[in-house]
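Repro:
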Amino acid sequence: MSNPMDAVVVGAGPVGLLTAIELTLGGARIVVLERLPSPSNAMKAMAIGAFGAEALMRRGMAGAIATRDGMDQRPRKFSGHFAGLSLIRSDAQKEPERRTRAVDQQGVEAMLAERARSLDIEVRRECEVVGFTLHADGIDVEWTTPTGAGQTQCSYLVGCDGGRSVIRKMAGFEFPGSSPTLTFYQAVVEIDRPDLLLPIGWNRTPGGVYSYGRFADRLLMLDFTGPPENRDAPVTREEIESVPRRISGTDVHVSALESGSRWTDNTRLVDTYRQGRVLLAGDAAHVHSPFGGQGLSLGLVDAANLGWKLAAVIRGEMPESLLDTYTTERRPVAKAVLANTLAQVAIMRPDPQSGAMRDIVANLMQLDDANRLIGEMMSGLSTRYDLGSERDDVGRLIGDKPIRHGDADVSLYDVMQDGMGVLLDASTDRKASTLVAATTQKVRRVAVNKGPSMLIRPDACVAWASEENNTDGLEPAVRRWFEP
């Protein structure tokens, strides 16, 4: 049996790797178990949302994101789409700088893997979890590899192993929701007569929805005839050719298929993200259709929310009840994403009733307020955890910004890279810093030249804020999140 660990993370995709990074920065001893021999090359997310990108930026990956970001850096009129309506306008958003980054899932995973290696995080590949046994003070995780079998003892088990999570199933989490009704295809192809599929962009027809040429040779299709008989069967050139013919009504000829994948609108959400010592994050806790590209970012913010909390509990500095806030904060966010993806499916269906609803939504999105509402919903920027404060900024995830620290300008996210909490102290005589220093050493105190003063959790959530010299509520907030 291997040496006991504080936590075992199952799954070395983006969510599992970020969870491992957060736990390691928090001082936990962890190991990542992954059944695949190497990172998957399957076509998945084409970009990462604002909150997901920011979670990586706070952990030292801002430069890697900037290098890989394929999105035009010039001002953009549109920043996203809702149900194929490319009408989310940048100029209608409150914080247009907090934007989607054109880094695909493979690129995100590569960045996280490099960061994990820099922290000496052990990732055991071709290591498949086959069972676990719960004890009063820990868990025995059983696994197999091509060369044998073994067991790892740990205090906590975190399932980041995707929509078909074996951890979720073994632990008996309820996973209610709706069954799939359609098939969504992504494929990189060569088409002999691409002009047959013009115009470029999302096209809705009586047979379905398709988009070609918007992202190089990538073909996206929604087939509303039903879910695939076998989602795991290889995607063939003949299949990819037949679907656009039926949807577009043109004699499309696919001369080459480089890669392809299928998805559905299977929509499910666990009742709780935690059962005792077993926790779930990412697609293991919630699945939905890929419309709007929200899934990757949603899972990464799960990891950012969970990692520092679990590390604090493992260190013995915070009670286990802190872990309950993981479900109360993150589950409503996932529920909202599931609802908007279901709504997108509803107005993309190729029937007259859905078309009428789609036309109304398109007209509403011409209004700045409606455009802003949908834009913030899709980006996640409308997220606000209920921390019991009347201030709107408390419970929000704060974006990166320059802060004047003494005589120098520094980046807030640069200050946060080691996973500590941060106090931005604009109070006279630094009375807020004095109060925090007397309560905990887990918060970095940064004197700034202008307010408001803010207490920021490691996941960038504003836990307390105040103008001028008012420190009312600061000590309870510090004790709630850092030092009971």
